[in-house]
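Hypothesis: this fold can be encoded by more than one sequence.
Test: take the structure tokens below, design a sequence, compare later.
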């Protein structure tokens, strides 16, 4: 094994053309050199390879040197080739390793075929080699989920031959020296049969049903199953042809572009910018060594769980002992469930240790925390009272965060002596599961506060998105017109199940009515009562279906007046098997109620087709997105898209609402909004936003250029 035969794969990310050429040249040289007896392939700087540069897939010049012939070249080498896997071996990187005759991995290395997550499949023969090496069930699991598996699991699966704690390269060279002269035929995966299963056909059929159900319209997982099926049914070369065909389909499907856009959007939002030029590059976070959560209701208990999981000691506070005990039980249950999912279990989380998690009703215990997250009822007076108290009790540097869904951050901050340290941290339910953390800065919020909240998001393994302060911030503000349209559609003749079906077929995890039943109709009702839109404070003589000269639907209020709060009461837009039940069934009572309602208000019921349902709901949400961008509440469309994908169940393969608008075509979105707005002139949410009109007027530039067409920098930025 001479020095010249060691081929170094260069960068962790393959600069494809350069790397592949170097690999090919090196292999050919090694093969031709009689002094070389074996070959070892490794990465530089402790990383094998994270695969192809994703940006290359959408570049018109992507067809450079293809990977498959090089993987074949490795496999057909007459000299043993050993992969030394450190760091990661992902995508094309793992496919290179699969071409090798032996694989040695460092114990901390991770391996995976994540192509499915960017809308593709392993297109360099990975779908054909992996099942031959580790069997169909394990290969299918890796290929259809894209998960990264640790080296220990890879060893159990037979994906690697050896794992080492120390020098991987030395171990790989040792192995290479040991196997010189041994037959290579049995090590060439393309020559191996796929291990048989007694029930292969049934297994593949079930796998397909399962991935289709989970994929919600995303093509890649389904085509991954088809590619693996080809490996079980066809000789290697034919399987490879099928893999290439399916890869081509995915590459041109549009979904791959959407998913790759989402990959980069999620990373782009880390580079936040805020008023006065402060940004991620200049602001430094404060350490959070201890945190507190106030209110252990639906949100607070999930937030506590998240903090404990991130190893941040927490003080959990409630208003009285009764609520405290209820909250403690709920938190403990969540933590026990989380511990069961983790290696090392409860010991790792250590939540029975009062130094890590303390329950109290005593505000004075918050005197030494670095950060407080308030999650009490959505009531401005209550929140102000709490923030006033906090500013007296907490140490001077402590960050004061509110989990409000919509209230004004500046007003909350005004109750404190440190408005620069007040910030919105808007979690999504269930808070220990949902990845989004909307971070809202107020007029006085300091760059350090924003940086600390972003750092917190990272520590909690969430995606933090920094946005400006307005009613509902970004996510809920865009949601209001969407839900409003859904309810208007019921007034006009549709049914909850019809509207939900259209949006679920589009790819949403859950339609607006099922979502409203899950979250509880009473939440919105309380907020509308506070705003004087319904209830006792509504001025006498207000028309039933109008507020402030605009169309209003009292339907959700009427349901609440009947005690129909959704799942919790067993009835809402649907009926459930019991209070707290989860199976939604269309409710004949509601259908009668809707007909009577239309009769009472003289509404002529009409058939509403799927296109209108989809367009009115989605385009009104997108229209609000343009308003948000124009006002400078968010610094780019990627922010809105990341919020929708991670907080609202928007289908990732459609890239988020603003990306979706760009694929539909802005002129079409504008034309449809104009049409619906003319039909419903009393609905401001359908009136096309001026920024959308402007973008269409300048011939709909690509999404990444949109912000440069805003004539002014908003004072919010
Ligand atoms: C018919 C011909 C067929 C040819 C078929 C060829 C088939 C292929 O060859 C298929 C492929 O490999 S597809 C690519 C598969 N690899 C992946 O999906 C890995 C994606 N990356 C990761 O998981 C994490 O970034 C990773 C685990 C690597 C690192 O995570 P970290 O949290 O440490 O870092 P990040 O913040 O995520 O990333 C750091 C910066 O790198 C950028 N980046 C990461 N992976 C990339 C990738 N694969 N391509 C391009 N850029 C990538 C990332 O955006 C970030 O950039 P900045 O935000 O600018 O810092
Ligand atoms: N439920 C949801 O899906 C979401 C709610 N939010 C927001 O999170 C906040 C909390 O909402 P939920 O958890 O749903 O409410 P919840 O009603 O389930 O819980 C609120 C908790 O706060 C406690 N509390 C009230 N006054 C208190 C005081 N003075 N001191 C200590 N604790 C007190 C209550 O005892 C109760 O346990 C609200 O601002 C809400 O708008 C934000 C995102 C999603």
């Amino acid at each position: 094994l001479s020095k010249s035969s060691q081929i170094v794969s260069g960068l962790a990310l393959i600069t494809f053309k350069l790397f592949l050429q170097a690999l090919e040249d090196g292999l050919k040289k090694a093969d031709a050199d009689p002094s070389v007896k074996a070959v070892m392939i490794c990465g530089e700087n402790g990383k094998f390879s994270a695969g192809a540069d994703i940006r290359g897939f959408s570049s018109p010049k992507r067809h450079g040197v293809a990977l498959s012939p090089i993987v074949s070249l490795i496999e057909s080498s007459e000299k043993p080739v050993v992969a030394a896997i450190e760091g990661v071996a992902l995508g094309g990187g793992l496919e290179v390793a699969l071409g090798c005759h032996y694989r040695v991995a460092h114990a901390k290395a991770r391996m995976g075929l994540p192509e499915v997550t960017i809308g593709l499949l392993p297109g360099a023969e990975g779908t054909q080699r992996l099942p031959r090496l580790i069997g169909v069930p394990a290969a299918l699991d890796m290929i259809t989920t894209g998960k990264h598996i640790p080296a220990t699991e890879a060893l159990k699966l037979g994906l690697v031959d050896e794992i080492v704690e120390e020098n991987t390269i030395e171990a790989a060279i040792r192995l290479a020296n040991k196997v010189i002269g041994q037959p290579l035929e049995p090590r060439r995966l393309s020559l191996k049969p796929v291990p048989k299963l007694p029930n292969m056909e049934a297994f593949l059929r079930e796998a397909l049903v399962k991935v289709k159900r989970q994929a919600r319209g995303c093509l890649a997982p389904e085509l991954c199953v088809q590619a693996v099926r080809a490996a079980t049914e066809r000789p290697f070369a034919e399987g490879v042809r099928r893999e290439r065909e399916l890869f081509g389909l995915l590459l041109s499907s549009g979904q791959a572009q959407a998913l790759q856009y989402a990959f980069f959007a999620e990373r782009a939002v880390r580079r936040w910018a805020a008023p006065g030029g402060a940004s991620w590059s200049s602001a430094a976070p404060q350490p959070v060594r201890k945190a507190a959560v106030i209110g252990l209701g639906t949100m607070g208990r999930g937030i506590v769980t998240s903090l404990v999981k991130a190893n941040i000691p927490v003080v959990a506070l409630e208003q009285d002992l009764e609520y405290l005990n209820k909250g403690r039980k709920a938190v403990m249950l969540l933590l026990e469930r989380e511990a069961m999912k983790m290696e090392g279990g409860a010991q790792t989380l250590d939540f029975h240790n009062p130094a890590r998690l303390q329950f109290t009703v005593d505000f004075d215990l918050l005197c030494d925390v670095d950060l407080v997250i308030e999650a009490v009822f959505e009531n401005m007076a209550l929140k102000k009272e709490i923030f006033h108290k906090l500013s007296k009790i907490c140490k001077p540097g402590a960050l004061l965060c509110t989990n409000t869904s919509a209230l004004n951050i500046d007003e909350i901050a005004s109750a404190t002596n440190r408005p620069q340290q007040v910030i919105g941290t808007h979690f999504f339910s269930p808070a220990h599961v949902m990845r989004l953390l909307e971070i809202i800065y107020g007029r006085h919020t300091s760059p350090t506060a924003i940086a600390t909240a972003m750092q917190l998001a990272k520590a909690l393994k969430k995606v933090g998105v920094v946005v400006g302060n307005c009613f509902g911030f970004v996510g809920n503000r865009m949601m209001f017109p969407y839900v409003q349209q859904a309810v208007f559609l019921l007034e006009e003749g549709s049914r909850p199940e019809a509207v939900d079906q259209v949006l679920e077929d589009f790819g949403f995890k859950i339609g607006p009515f099922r979502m409203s039943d899950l979250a509880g109709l009473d939440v919105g009702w309380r907020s509308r009562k506070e705003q004087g839109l319904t209830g006792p404070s509504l001025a006498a003589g207000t028309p039933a279906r109008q507020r402030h000269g605009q169309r209003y639907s009292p339907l959700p209020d009427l349901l609440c007046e009947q005690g129909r709060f959704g799942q919790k009461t067993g009835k809402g837009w649907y009926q459930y098997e019991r209070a707290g039940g989860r199976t939604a069934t269309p409710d004949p009572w509601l259908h009668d109620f809707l007909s009577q309602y239309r009769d009472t208000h003289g509404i002529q019921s009409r058939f509403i087709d799927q296109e209108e349902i989809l367009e009115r709901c989605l385009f009104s949400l997108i229209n609000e997105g343009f308003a948000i961008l124009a006002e400078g509440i968010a610094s780019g469309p990627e922010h809105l898209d990341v919020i929708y994908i991670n907080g609202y169940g928007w289908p990732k393969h459609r890239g988020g609402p603003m990306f979706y608008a760009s694929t539909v075509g802005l002129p079409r979105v504008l034309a449809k909004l104009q049409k619906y707005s003319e039909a419903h002139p009393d609905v401001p949410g359908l009136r096309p936003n001026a920024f959308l009109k402007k973008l269409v007027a300048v011939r709909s530039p690509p999404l990444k250029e949109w912000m440069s067409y805003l004539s002014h920098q908003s004072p919010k930025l």
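The CA atoms of residues 68 and 124 lie 5 Å apart. The radius of gyration is 29 Å.
Hypothesis status: open.
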